[in-house]
Amino acid sequence: MADVSDAVERVSEAVGEVSEASGPRRLGGDDRGQLMLVAALAIAVLLVGLALTLNTAIYTENLATRTTDTNLDGAVNHGGAVEAGAGTLVDEVNREGGTYAELTDSFDGTFGNWSDTAATLAAVRGAATNASRVSHVEGTRISQTDAARNFSDRGESADWTLASGVGVRGVRFEVARDSLATSSGSAFEFVVDDGTDAVETEIYRDATQVFVTVEDAGGTRTTCSVAADAGDSVTIDVAAGRLNGTACDPLDAVHTDLDGTVAVSYRNAVQAEGTYELYVNETNATVFDAARYAPAGSGSSPVAEEALYAVNVSYVYESGETYVYRELRVAPGEIA
What sections of the protein cross the membrane (predicted)? Predict the structure, then answer.
């Protein structure tokens, strides 16, 4: 702003000289015109100087912002990759089976390899990264792998509770279309109840479609459907809210209408055949009941076995002057 100030001083001196030379006499038309011209020149100089100063400040701020955002974008992207990678890995490890100690060892080894690979790729971009497991929550995987069996318990009870007083995640069904009831009144139901409210999900069919009807905590029933021919199977991913890979908005009620721990139950379980899995956050010693479940490795269904319900992982991202450390809780597909 020094140039602007000098210009203003020079204009002011010029105005003063005109005034002194003129003395006390009244200004004529030419004098007034000269003063107006000088004043206009002063204003123009001020505006140009102010514009230049503001533009410089804005450019400097934008440059700094872009630099910071670029580094933070890298940290955010890495955090998303850590969360997605840990989420995929934890369930792959669970499906392999084992004791809690074996599951954590398997997770740590594979996740460590993933972290090393990610660090190598990040180094090419001038960043340093690292990720590791901090802790975990022991839980139980409840599943059925016999696609020709209905969803009754080990004792063939059609109405049964899988677990109660639990958190639940990762609920997925693959159901044989031909095994389903042809009306909602007698259909297979998946029920999640928090003790105050319940959300009930029915799965049934007609000649050309499979329907998923959800009754939310307020008693409102909504339906989504997918075309299915004889012999087809359909997947219902309750956690992701999808029917055969397509969004099924009624399933959102399972996420939004319940609070706290829940009981998970099946009704009319003989009206559906296929496979399923879900995870609860109680240990297998608490959940397993020989009247309802077969032990892991028995070849029978359904099975309740040890699993990692959630893992807490940390990651570091460092690039230039940007340093980010975060811890994430990873429990993929958690609904309650």
Answer: 35-59
